[in-house]
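Batch job 17 of 40 flagged for manual review because the log was empty.
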Amino acid sequence: MGAKVCNKCRVEKPATDDYFPTMPSGKLRPSCRVCMNERKGFKRCKKCGEEKLANRDNFGSMPSGGFRGSCRVCMRKNTAKHNKQNPEMQKKRSKIRKVSDGGFIVTDQLRRSLWQRDSGYCLLCNRPLGNMSSAQVDHLIPISRGGTNSPENLCLAHVQCNKEKHKKTYQEHREWRKRNNLD
């Protein structure tokens, strides 16, 4: 297997179809898949330009099921920068959340009760949670959509599953997972 230099990024890469698309003539194209933004299973972050595996670990999910344009590292940096520059907005969001949840506090007893009821499984993806302390408590019907803080409306979930559910109801989230081949 030989090597080839991309005519756009000038990076030497293996001369295979995984790195350089094949033209109808059978020859490899002069630009690599990354520069052509079509490397199978990879995505380039729009902020840092780094190429990463296109998966939920590296890029957050959008409601449509696709991946965000910026990687998680850049998103975290951007969020931290925004919060630092706008502390009043962060305080306002926190205050609104406290008011909307009516001072609801997740106790160890509630966490144990949910763990036992659901047999240590995340209701959002139906996979084992691993340990109780790393699981997040989620509302099956979000408070913002008329849900309550009663145990019947709560479940333990993986952090990633909880983030992906966002403000969807449990049923909407299950449909979203099916539509995006996550089950």
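Reviewer: the log was empty due to a logging misconfiguration, but the result itself is present. The longest helix spans residues 72-85. Unflagging and moving on to job 18.
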